[in-house]
Every structure is written in C-alpha cells, then in structure tokens.
Design a protein that fits this description.
Blueprint: E1 7-13, H1 20-29, E2 35-39, H2 46-52, E3 56-59, H3 69-79, E4 84-87, H4 99-107, E5 113-122, H5 129-146, E6 158-161, H6 162-167, H7 177-187, E7 192-199, H8 212-225, H9 227-230, H10 232-260, H11 266-311, H12 351-362
Parallel strand pairs: 1-2, 1-4, 2-3, 5-7
Antiparallel strand pairs: 4-6, 5-6
Length: 363
C-alpha cells in the first residue's frame, strides 16, 4: 500500500505555464500533498501558476534557459527530505494515474529505483521518429556498455528511495541526468525495476526544451564518459582497438607500397607503429583497470553485507572473512585467526603457580 505522506513529487520546470497547473492539480487530486517544483527562472508565469495550484515552488540556483534540468533535479533531491521522491517532467506527458504503479515496487520492498517505460504504452506521435531512433541507439549502447537492460533509460518518470538518493552521486547539469542516474544505479547496485506507463502527447501550446542533436550528443557523451569508472575495459579498449586498427591499416599500406611499387613511406610507417603501440597499451590499461574495478566492487559488496549484519545485531557471516578461494583472511584455510592461539583443551599453568609449587616441595 502506497503511503502518499512519505512521497515528495519533484517537478523540474522551465517555461511550462501551459501545463504545470494541470500537472500539479492532477497529483494533488491523487492524494499527493507534497509537490515540489524547482523552476529555472521561467519568464512565462510558471512559478505563479504552480504555486496557485498548491505546489511548493523553488527557483533553482543555476540559470535555466531550458538546458539545466540536471541541476534542478539535483537541487530538488537535496531540498526534499521525504523517504521517497517521485520525479517527472512538467509538460503533461506523464500521468498522475501512473504514480501508484511507479511507487508500488518501492513500498513493497522490491526496488529502490523505479523507471517508467514510455514505450510500453505510448500515444501515436508522442515522440518523433528522430527521437525514437536516438532513444533506441542510446538504450542499446547502455545495455552494451553497462550490461543492464532498463528498457528506457531516458524516461523522466522516476521513483527513488532516500537510500538510493544518498548512494548515487549526480553531477550532470543538463539532459544527461537520466543517463547518469541509470549508470550510477548500476554502479552502486541499486535495486531497479522497470514498470509500464502511459506516455501522452505534449499539448500543442507547449514547446519542448529538448534539442535532439545537441542534447543527444551530450547524452551519448555522458554514457561513454561514465564507462570510465563502471566499465573501463570498454572505455579504454574501444579507443585502443580503434588505434590498433588504424596502425595495422597504415602498416598494410606501407607494406603494399614497398612490395608492389618499391616505394618506401618511412613517416607513415612510424605513425602506424606508434598507433599500434598506443592501442596495445590502452588495451592493457583497460584490462588492468577492469580488474581493479571488479575487486573494488567485491570488497564494497562484502563491506555492505558486514555493515548490514552488524546493524541488525547479528555476527558477521563467515563469507565476510573468506576470499574467493575459500581461504580465511583471518588465518589459514580452516585455522583460527592470525595472532590468536588455538585452544587444545588443556590449560597451561601460569609461571608463578609453578614456581610456588616447586618451593613447597623443597620445604
């Protein structure tokens, strides 16, 4: 059962006067009294309309201009102290009727982060063909790079627990915030669930702040940049493979020219050699970095398990002290912890007691 009093509805806005009033009213009618609007200094009366509809309105510290959604989201998450935050855009494309669906996995204890899948039930024409292609490319790239299929990582309809908010680290200022949030949840093993929602057409009088090419490039760059700490083998390996292929191609050209036409290209040969060396070094660095990330994740997981058991008042499990090969890090494979003496069942007499006994025999 969803507890509406524990939920803060967070709506980042910029020039959404045509729709923000209906959005705020619809959520209040569904029983959500805590509605927070973070506005990017709109000049069309968005703040006044949202306030009249019953929302708490805060002007974000950064300059809006339609491209500071990420900064508004980060600021809203910091301002809210509710146990659960339900985040969505203020353009009337997301329905308040889907809020129960979004929040049910959290209140049932199955997830700490919920994504609303727009493609599950989308009105015709809600997204242009260009944006549809871009969404598919980005979602497939996310699945390839980060190893998880979240269906619709660019969805603006999200639900987060306070624990998830505290675990992720968000830095994006623009429309890359959804991508960064998805990657951070993968990186920190935040339980995530995807649920179907209804995605509506934007009203005719409402203009989008999204620029397909510019913001699409930012999102793709964010997706690749964040692979540095989540999948370094891809991050460094992709550039390494490209450099190696370029070097091999230059080398093949030089060899062909030398064998067939007896023409030497010393400069090209040197450049090709450097490209191959550079590519191989990047591949090696990517492998080493990936090993370090894997070890760090395993250690972090064990520490989290240990902290959870200690917080529950129970003793740490044996797996918290064992390495992957079954060796006890406190001592041997099955032996006692290092620095302790194993009891044999027979108590050793103390030196003072032995000396006293000897003196009594002599008397």
């Amino acid at each position: 059962m969803v507890d509406h009093e524990k939920v803060c509805v967070l709506i980042p806005t910029y020039d959404e006067a045509e729709t923000i009033g209906d959005v705020v009213t619809s959520f209040r009618e569904e029983g959500f009294e805590n509605v927070l609007v973070v506005d990017g200094d709109s000049n069309d009366g968005t703040q006044e309309i949202a306030r009249d509809a019953g929302a708490r309105v805060v002007q974000q510290s950064g300059q809006g201009q339609g491209n500071m959604k990420g900064q508004a989201v980060r600021e809203g998450l910091e301002l809210s102290d509710a146990p659960v935050v339900l985040m969505l855009d203020g353009d009337w494309t997301y329905r308040a009727e889907d809020a129960e669906t979004m929040l049910e996995p959290i209140f049932s204890g199955r997830a700490d982060h919920v994504i609303g899948d727009r493609f599950a039930d989308m009105e015709p024409g809600a997204i242009t063909r260009l944006n549809t292609v871009g969404n598919k490319v980005i979602n497939r790239g996310f699945r390839l790079i980060h190893g998880h299929d979240y269906g619709d990582i660019l969805s603006g309809y999200r639900a987060l627990t306070r624990e998830a908010i505290e675990r992720v680290s968000l830095t994006e200022d623009g429309f890359g915030i959804e991508t960064e949030l998805a990657v951070e949840c993968v990186k920190h093993n935040v339980r995530t669930e995807v649920v179907p929602i209804r995605y509506r057409n934007r009203p005719d009088d409402s203009e989008t702040n999204l620029h397909p090419f510019k913001d699409g490039a930012v999102i793709i760059l964010t997706l690749y940049r964040m692979a540095k700490t989540n999948n370094p083998l891809f991050y460094f390996g992709s550039v390494g493979i490209a450099s190696t292929l370029v070097g091999v191609g230059l080398g093949a050209y030089v060899a062909y020219e030398w064998i067939v036409r007896s023409i030497s290209h010393e400069v090209i040969a040197v450049v090709g050699s450097f490209a191959i060396l550079f590519g191989v070094q990047l591949l090696m660095f990517g492998v080493l970095s990936d090993m370090m990330v894997t070890v760090n994740r395993e250690q972090t997981r064990r520490l989290e398990e240990l902290a959870e058991r200690l917080s529950e008042g129970g003793p740490p499990s044996r797996s918290s002290f064992e390495s992957d090969d079954g060796t006890d890090r406190r001592g041997g494979a099955d032996g006692p912890p290092s620095g302790t003496v194993e009891s044999t069942g027979e108590s050793e007499p103390e030196p003072g007691v032995v000396e006293a006994a000897d003196s009594a025999d002599e008397d």
